[in-house]
Design brief:
Largest sheet: 12 strands, antiparallel
Helix content: under 10%
Order of helices and strands: EEEEEEHEEEEEE
Number of strands: 12
Shape: globular
Structural class: mainly beta
Oligomer: single chain
Number of helices: 1
């Protein structure tokens, strides 16, 4: 049975990348969907604290960068001591927020990303049809002293297994899970708007495929 550090449930929201980042230095390792990890019967259950958990995203295009956040709706995992054995986390796609803009610019970009603009529903996340994304823990590996969390990320009914660096600290019955900044290729989940790898003739009017994510998560013993 695969055992994985509690860091696992960090990526509850991973898949929330919205525009694109051209920095591939920390690109998440990606493979096809894998078998989900299971826990022993005596494992302790922990639950996500949504009000204290945040997923940060950053997207980039030739003319600038946008940043934002997305919320973790709920989640649970089972762990022995500080080692997590299984977990599933739900991302609230309807909570996508832009943090670098204000007023109408902020409102308009958020609506475009969510797909609540008539005629542009499928450009990005189409939250009316796909209100949630999920992450299911599949395992963890150690690479040069760094814990790499593995899990199945599902966005818009497309599932890919990703691995990214995580760390964890414990304070009483609370667990603080933090990922290093990493990137995912949004087009692997059919988020294709403005992608040069999908569409021709965009010139400088394109959005980079890679999206940067950083997970800050708090979990509490149930």
């Amino acid at each position: 049975m695969k055992r994985i550090f509690l860091n696992a449930f960090v990526i509850a929201g991973l898949g929330l990348a919205v525009t694109g980042c051209k920095n591939n230095n920390n690109e998440a390792e990606m493979t096809d969907e894998k078998e989900v990890a299971t826990a022993e019967a005596e494992a302790t259950e922990f639950t996500v604290v949504p009000t204290e958990s945040t997923i940060e995203w950053q997207g980039e295009k030739p003319t600038g960068t946008h940043t934002g956040t997305i919320k973790v709706a709920n989640g649970s995992f089972k762990a022995n001591d500080s080692i997590i054995e299984s977990g599933t986390f739900v991302i609230d796609m309807q909570s996508i927020e832009v943090t670098d803009l204000e007023g109408d610019q902020k409102t308009n970009l958020e609506a475009h990303l969510k797909g609540t603009v008539e005629g542009k529903e499928g450009d990005f996340f189409n939250v009316n049809e796909f209100p949630e994304a999920t992450f299911e823990v599949t395992g963890i590996t150690e690479e040069e002293g760094q814990s790499m969390l593995q899990g199945n990320l599902t966005i818009k009914e497309e599932t890919k297994n990703i691995a990214f660096p995580v760390s964890i600290s414990k304070d009483g019955e609370n667990l603080m899970i933090t990922s290093e900044e990493f990137t995912i290729d949004r087009t692997k989940w059919n988020v294709n708007y403005g992608s040069k790898s999908v569409f021709e003739g965009l010139g400088d009017e394109f959005i980079y495929d890679d999206v940067a994510l950083k997970i800050n998560l708090k979990a509490k013993k149930a």
